[in-house]
Amino acid sequence: MRFVLYIAFIFFCFSANSQEWRDSLDIARTAYKNKDYPKAMKYYESAQKKAPDNVDLSDEMAQSSYKAREFEKAEKIYQQNDASKKSNIQKADNYHNLGNSRMKRKDYEGAIDAYKESLRKNPNDDKTRYNLSEAIRQLKNKQEQQNKDNQKDQQKDNKDQKDKEGD
Hints:
Layout: H1 2-33, H2 37-50, H3 58-67, H4 71-81, H5 88-104, H6 108-121, H7 126-166
């Protein structure tokens, strides 16, 4: 009789824990649908901690972070997430999303690297190809602006030096 009670107790504990992570997951998904991304992220993290080892909520966590405009957090999740992807299409999608997070942070070189890796995994992805060209364009604009700023600084330094010599 004690054995049966013991088994029932263990089963109850496991099922309660199972229900708890599923409840967190339901709340997270509802919050995401309602565009409450910070709340969704909080509940996804809670659900992931309590979920069985074979449950991976990292994609949903990363999307919630991205939508909450926490691009650095999303980038970290996408980087960690790569190893869990099985197919080249999944890996390509992960790198595409990593590139998007880097673009939002204006890390154009990092975005270019991520988009190139995505295209290596899925060369037929036109969205990634477009995003790669946009990242290259943004990087060139950034470099041109830096060059203009450097030239202005150099001209100002030259003018200041001439003014000192004239005194």
